[in-house]
Amino acid sequence: MKIAIFSDIHGNLVALQTLLGRLQAEGCDAIYCLGDLFTPYPGSPQIWELAKAAGVECVLGNNEAALLAHLSGEFDYRSDEVRFRPFLKNAEEIRPFQPEIQALPLTRSVALTDTLRLHLCHYSRDEVLRGLHAGIQFDLEHYVAGLAEPVVFTGHIHKFSGCDIQGKQVYSVGSAGLPLKGSQQLEYTLVEAGPDGLRVTYRLLPYPFEQEIAFLLEQRYLAEYGPVAWLAFDEILTQRDRMVTFFKEYLPQHDGQPRDYARLIQAFLSSLGRWEPLAHYLDHS
After folding, report:
1. C-alpha R_g of the chain
2. What residues does 6 pair with on adjacent strands?
3. Which CATH architecture group holds 2-206?
4. 9 vs 202: CA distance, rounded Å
5. What is the pTM of this model?
6. Whole-number Å distance between alpha carbons of 177 and 175
7. pLDDT of 276 above 70
8. Are 56 and 32 in contact (CB under 8 A)?
9. For residues 3 and 112, is the Cβ–Cβ distance under 8 A?
10. Which residues contact 275 (CB under 8 A, 6 or more apart)?
11. Domain spans of the chain?
């Protein structure tokens, strides 16, 4: 049996189209997504229809959990409307199929063979349900210790890794939409059961990111989704982190100032030598 596992598309429609085209050629018995299909880019309805048409089995990511919390009124992300504008626009996109997202499980237990089960999740339960507004908790030790399955696959951290935790094999499958490796290649993992035991293969796949850029410009992403979209747009252009560094490191250093996101993000990107390349697209958006 051979299955494909990917995670963290984050609204990159062209990346998902490319990945599913490849996986159809791989002859997989099943395809699983470990969450964060949506945000911060437009195209959520197309992404959901693509995933369903390909028979992708999903688990809930922290972005989906946050979208559901907002739509249900459990948490109001409009309190910082400029910061969360891309997220809020995604929330409106998924509203028509909100019940389908609500039905997604937090985890899946998959029988790869008669004697080997895999645990699939976005990350720990607490990390998923924190949404987007709480502190990041990257400790898997306690969560993994309580699992029955000997092999665990996660997403969330946007990089491939494999390690032993509490005597269990734990793999992060990277990101198929924003791998942030500095190259325009998405990540996915193939898992097979063979005569020699479990085989986990990490794959990189180039994708036509220029088509995603063109799609975002057609959607007036830079103009209508606000300055935080500038950070997300530069992540697609460079495949380097912008959002986490800005909000976790740069912004706290300027918290005593009025939160003028446009000015702060321009200064941040300028410090990285990235403002002029982005301004070219802003001028034409």
Report:
1. 19
2. 33
3. 4-Layer Sandwich (3.60)
4. 16
5. 0.95
6. 6
7. yes
8. yes
9. yes
10. 266, 269
11. 2-206, 219-283
